[in-house]
Amino acid sequence: MDRFVSQGRLEWWANQSTCLEMYDIDITVSVDAVGQWRATGRHANALDATQRESWDFLMEMDPHFSIAFPGEDRGGIAVRVVEAEDGTLTLTEVAEQDQHASWTPC
Questions:
Q1: pTM of the predicted model as reported, rounded to 2 decimal places
Q2: Which residues neighbour 3 within 8 Å (Cβ) at sequence distance 6 or greater?
Q3: What does the mean pLDDT of the chain come to?
């Protein structure tokens, strides 16, 4: 199993031209022998009260984000984010047919 540890940026896009919020994360991605990947992470910096309120609002509206890695201007991989009580983020790639009609990756 290959493993990649880096920083990334979760982007919440309202449409193809409007990114409402971006969150820096520390991420670990593992890829198994058949190419399936799993990712976990944490916010790179603790969210202040305003950021936490925005994060919770967006997660409640739609927990689908685009993820960008260093050197990328925009995220290209659509992911569903689940946050555990301890703050651990689990990211799961979203298949194109499972993406919400209102959400379009950039």
A1: 0.83
A2: 28, 29, 30, 31
A3: 87
